[in-house]
Amino acid sequence: MRALRRAWAEGPRSVAEDLWSVARDPMPRGQYLGRLPHLHLALLAALLGLLNANEAQRGRFGADTELGLLVIVLQTAVVLLAMVRPVPAWWLSTALLSASALIGEDTIDHGRVWPWNVAGISLHALVLFLLALRVRPQSAVVALGITVLSGMADTLLATQEHNQVVSRGAMAFVIAVVIGAARRSSRTAKERLVEQEVLTAEERARRTLLEERNRIARELHDVVAHHMSVISIQAQVAPHLVADPTPELRENLAGIRENAVEALAELRRVLGVLRAEDARADGVRHAPQPTLDRLDELVGKVRAAGPDVAVSVTGVRRALPPGVELSAFRIVQEALSNAMRHAPGASVEVGIGYGADSLTVRVVNSAPDGPVPPPGGAGHGLLGMRERASMLGGDLAVGPTPSGGYDVTAVLPVDPAEDTP
Fold first, then answer.
1. What CA–CA distance (Å, rounded) separates 170 from 174?
2. Cα radius of gyration (the chain)
3. How far apart are CA 217 and CA 215, in angstroms?
4. Which residue from 405, 412, 274, 421 is spatially nearest to 332, judged by alpha carbons?
5. What pLDDT was estimated at residue 5?
6. Residues paired with 293 in a beta bridge
7. Strands (DSSP E) along 179-323, which ranges?
């Protein structure tokens, strides 16, 4: 009812836009039947046209039979036109109804229905139905009213008494409009539901992305805070390492320490905002962030859960910047978790490659030995790995392997000058 009231409130402008349009508006295809309903309508129009022609041959149009047959052909063809351009088709069908009534009005048998015959009513009802499928409900009602008024006008122009059928024809037209409007409302509701589902999926993906970024930010806070703490301590200790520090040196070092302390305070405030919506973060607030030194510990826990995990390290193993170490560890952790969740019974190979200016992390699992459980959750894993690699300017490639397993490969750039000594 609310939608109907809103539709009526749009006023005459919307009706004029609908009923004065000549735009092409093809009848939508059926979701399951495709073009079959179009063929059914064309066949029905042809059968009604034959019925209409049969009435014409029995003297419905008197001496003007040829002109009457032309009107009948046009009444049949206008149904096909309504499948593509419903508004012009409706105007033409309404005019043909009046033409059909007035052509043989002087000679038609008083026992025959007038101004509309049964076949003509059926053909126009089809046109009204196709119009109501495409225009707003208030416009379909106005079109119905114009049709009925045209029939009443025909009766006023009559020169003799007839077996009038305006009321019965109007009932058929009302039924056609109601069914068409109902079908249109149902289709519109489904389209809006699909749009809402798309918007919901986009919003869910956006929220998932923000959650992952917040989680990464919380983890990196400890890394940044550690460096700022070291700067503060070094600035405080530095004057004692010089035999006779100048006042300028003491002042500069004091400024460095003051700025470091202020930066730490701001980091704590930022972290407080990030953790305000995550009560679980309180439990790990003071836990050190993991690095690749804890890779063996992580692999041991996974092996204890059942999967066979092999680890290989290539290149010269060295300490890397904390952000790279943390991201690499989290990528391996998430990839192992995905392998356990989505490939039960599969063996896993973890490869760490130390290059001159990059760190390559690769986790490959074989095909699962047992049935794969259906996917669940919001799918944060791949998104989190991609965000970590992107944050460092690296690349992440994921996808199935020819043997039926899954491959996760991340390449994280490393500036040799930033390597931890």
1. 6
2. 39
3. 5
4. 412
5. 61
6. none
7. 309-314
Q: Rounded to a whole number, what is the distance in angstroms from the first to the last CA of the chain? A: 73
pTM: 0.55
| Separation between Cα atoms, residue 409 and residue 396, nearest integer Å | 6
DSSP symbols for 43-90: HHHHHHHHHHHHHIIIIITTT-HHHHHHHHHHHHHHHHHHTT-HHHHH
* Distance separating alpha carbons of residues 1 and 290, to the nearest angstrom: 59
- Pairing mode, if any, of strands 395-400 and 348-354? unpaired
Tell me the per-residue pLDDT of 280-326, one tens digit each, with 9 for 90 and over: 444 444 456 788 888 998 898 888 887 899 999 999 888 888 888 88
248's tokens: 């300028």
Distance CA(362)–CA(294), nearest Å, equals 17
The DSSP output letter for 114 is E
* CB neighbours of residue 288 within 10 Å: 9
CA distance 327 to 220: 9
- pLDDT tens digits, residue range 14-34? 888 888 888 888 877 765 455
